[in-house]
Design brief:
The structure holds two protein chains of two kinds. Chain A is mostly helical. Chain A contains twelve helices and no strands. Chain A has helices at about 5-10, 15-25, 30-45, 50, 85-125, 125-140, 145-155, 160-185, 190-195, 200-235, 250-255, 265-290. Chain A is elongated, with a radius of gyration of 23 Å. In chain B, the strands form two sheets. A six-stranded mixed sheet of chain B has the order 6-7-8-3-9-10, sandwiched between helices. In chain B, strand 4 and strand 5 form a beta hairpin. The longest helix of chain B has 18 residues, at about 190-205. The chains are: A mainly alpha, B alpha/beta.
Chain lengths: ~300, ~270
């Protein structure tokens, strides 16, 4: 009898097969690398914000009216806003807020949406009908209107904004995942999986889910920019992050009226939104190419 | 093992008046078919004759392809036509499993082969040393290196993938393989290897086989009994020799006449 050593049967990294596959395939992906580097810089800057900004107190509500609306200069690289706060400091601290919103909304949306979606898509029948009708109810409301309504009803703050955006975002992931899972459910390897006697739970989470992730990841990357903009819109309307929180959308809103006279107040947070959204998109596009199951490691 | 099982033996698979329909359209009808241990029954016919639909229905997988299955298919006493998911799982991977037409498409593209094998065995309560031993034995039986377990499906050839699918059936110690055109996606030399392997396994392990094929040459080497299907209905059923050498139905004669002959010009 031939006994195969356990490590030969299933290498340790197999437990993270999806990540291993991604890591192998991401080598040489320039688009992914560019997006990842930019995002990494943004994340590192956000984490080190108190140490790499000249006026960290400006992120917490400190005001300096004497120095209001100073154009970019040696002391204030991005200038100052209406109450004399350093725009560079607030842009760097704003990355913390925006990234927190993006990761919170996407995590909650994927957790709820993709889980329900793959179950609905694989199971079909009444389970799919119930799940999809519930998503229809949520999608029947215009997304921004529903978010606004929730923010008005609840206490307007950052947590409410995250909740409000998540409520309008998760049904899209359910729809996407359900469609992909239904398609995967009809593939030859799922017939083989069933014929091996694999339980529905294992079939869904070991076989359907990993094969459903590519479109979800692409959608995540596309949505990240949209979430930053939606959070900014809520903040703009006074229903998201509140003063003195440093948040890019709020900063753009505050600088909007001053654009002809003090462009820097809105420009730099606006550029930050643009760069972050673009980096997320590049990351997603790179991931999409890399995770296509039909690609070999080296191609 | 002989083609004809002893009349007193209990069939492994017992099909009675099985009808597969899509909406109002009947795509496959098997009035009666028993498959015994060690026996190979082939369903033959042209494309669209309903043989694959019949095979999936026998496996209890008809509903997943959107078909409605009526009648009765008893496998180890479980009627897979109206079985619950839990009942089906007791049949799949123990009494019967599937070997598909496109072996690489039949393997999860994001899972290494070793992981798949381990999961399949774990599902049936075989873990640890026992699982490793069974997989090792099965791989050596189908002449595949252990190293293949580290690979993803796209990293192996069609022949290797098909051998691996067969190895899964061996490791699970199933009583019957449902093979859907198991060699049609492979080149001729690999076809011969797979055929030889299936035939040896059947004889060694007394494994039954329900084989779907349009290739009468393949059927003639493996099948004990042949069911000829046309437009979803059985037109002839009999032993291999009866069907191939003394066909009763005109359609069977047409099928036999259509078999290509090496060197023939018309």
């Amino acid at each position: 009898m031939t006994i195969i050593p356990p490590e030969e049967l299933v290498p340790n990294d197999e437990r993270f097969a999806f990540l291993t596959l991604a890591r192998g395939r991401l080598r040489g992906q320039k688009l992914f690398a560019a997006g990842a580097i930019v995002l990494l810089i943004i994340i590192v800057m956000a984490l080190l914000a108190p140490w790499i900004t000249p006026y960290p107190q400006d992120a917490q509500g400190g005001v300096d009216p004497v120095n209001s609306l100073l154009a970019p200069n040696g002391q204030h690289w991005f200038g100052t806003d209406q109450v004399g706060r350093d725009v560079y400091t607030r842009v760097v601290f704003g990355a913390r807020t925006s990234l927190f919103i993006v990761f919170s909304v996407l995590s909650l949306s994927v957790l709820i949406g993709v889980t329900l979606g793959v179950i609905a898509g694989y199971a079909g029948g009444w389970i799919r009908d119930v799940v999809m009708r519930v998503t229809d109810v949520f999608l029947a409301f215009p997304a921004l209107l529903l978010s606004l309504a929730l923010c008005i009803v609840l206490q307007p703050d950052l947590k409410t904004a995250i909740l409000a955006i998540t409520v309008t975002w998760w049904p899209w992931y359910t729809r996407l995942a359900a469609g992909v899972a239904a398609s995967i459910s009809g593939r030859a390897y799922m017939d083989a999986v069933r014929a091996l006697g694999i339980s529905p739970a294992r079939a869904v989470f070991r076989h359907v889910l990993p094969n459903s992730l590519t479109p979800v990841i692409v959608q995540l990357s596309l949505d990240a920019g949209g979430i930053i903009l939606t959070a900014a819109a809520l903040s703009f309307l006074g229903l998201g992050a509140q003063e003195p929180t440093a948040e890019w959308g709020l900063m753009v809103a505050q600088g909007q009226d001053l654009f002809t006279t003090a462009y820097w107040v809105a420009l730099f947070p606006g550029l930050a939104i643009l760069v972050a959204a673009f980096a997320f998109n590049m990351l997603g596009e790179g991931m999409r190419t890399a995770l296509d199951p039909r690609r070999g490691f080296t191609s | 093992m002989t083609a004809q099982a002893a009349p007193t033996a209990r069939p492994l698979i017992s099909v009675r008046d099985m009808r597969v329909t899509y909406g109002d359209r009947l795509v496959s009808h098997l009035p009666e078919l028993d498959v015994y241990e060690g026996e190979c029954v082939a369903l033959v016919g042209e494309s669209g004759s309903g043989k694959t639909s019949a095979l999936l229905a026998i496996l209890g997988l008809g509903d997943f392809s959107g078909a409605h299955v009526a009648g009765s298919v008893l496998i180890n006493g479980v009627n897979v036509v109206d079985a619950t998911q839990a009942q089906l799982r007791r049949v799949h991977g123990t009494a019967i499993t599937l070997v598909s037409q496109s072996p690489q498409a039949a393997l999860n593209p994001t899972m290494r082969l070793g992981r798949l094998a381990k999961l399949a065995l774990k599902q049936h309560g075989v873990r640890g040393r026992e699982a490793n031993a069974r997989i090792g034995d099965a791989l050596s039986r189908v002449v595949l290196p252990n190293e293949i377990l580290k690979r993803y499906p796209h990293e192996v050839s069609g022949g290797q993938a098909q051998r691996f699918c067969i190895a899964l059936a061996v490791a699970l110690q199933v009583q019957c393989i449902a093979a859907d055109e198991p060699t049609s996606a492979l080149d001729v030399t690999v076809q011969a290897e797979i055929l030889r392997l299936l035939d040896e396994l059947r004889r060694e392990r007394n494994m039954a086989m329900v084989l779907v094929s349009h290739d009468l040459a393949l059927v003639s080497t493996l099948a004990d009994r042949i069911v000829v299907m046309k437009d979803g209905e059985v037109v002839e059923i009999g032993s291999r020799d009866e069907v191939l050498h003394s066909p009763k139905a005109d359609y069977t004669r047409e099928l036999l006449a259509a078999v290509p002959v090496l060197g023939a010009t018309s």
